[in-house]
Amino acid sequence: MIPLLCVTTSASVHDSQTAIPMMKRLSAVVTSLYDLMDSAYDAPAIKAVSVSLGHVPIIDQNRRRGPKLKLAPCEAVRYGERSNAQQRAATRSNAEQRAATRSNAERGNRRLKDSFGLRFVRVRGHAKVHLHTMLGVLALFADQLLKPHPGEPHF
Fold it and tell me: Is the pTM of this model over 0.85?
């Protein structure tokens, strides 16, 4: 839960509109292998940029974009040995793993709101809101750095 990049936008900007610029800025600083996003980011342009940066996009399918894609014939043969219950269990475990990873980021967002003053921002103006947000992000970063990690002595 250490924040790597933060952008302050107006409330009318959807998160997916900042995804591509943030992915590009972050890839210049940090080496990452995956882009893990929820269904709000399910867009061909976002996936294409993720692949062009050398990342593997793991993006939930947006249900409003049409029916779920069926397996290609070669994939159906590969998975043909599994029973339907085993296929559902394998799919569920993959989804649960992704949800657990994404819930860690959501936990950081929740901590920013509940513990570091971002639930109610009572200032106006981009500069003031940005300062308020960055102070919360800085406090979260410092809090995460000061937390004892397993195997380290407590002082």
Answer: no
Which residue in 22, 92, 8 sits closest to 55, CA to CA? 22
Q: How far apart are CA 102 and CA 113, in angstroms?
A: 17
Tell me how far apart the alpha carbons of residues 6 and 8 are, in angstroms, rounded to a whole number: 7
Query: Mapping DSSP to helix (H, G, I), strand (E, B) and coil, where does residue 69 land?
Result: coil
Structure tokens at 23: 């992915």
Instruction: Please answer whether residues 108 and 3 qualify as being in contact, where contact means their C-beta atoms are separated by less than 8 angstroms.
Output: yes
Query: Per the structure block, which two tokens stand in for 76?
Result: 């159906």
Query: Which pair of tokens denotes residue 136?
Result: 């919360």
- Please check the confidence at residue 74 and state whether its pLDDT lies above 50: no
Tell me if 62 sits within 8 A of 82, measured CB to CB: no
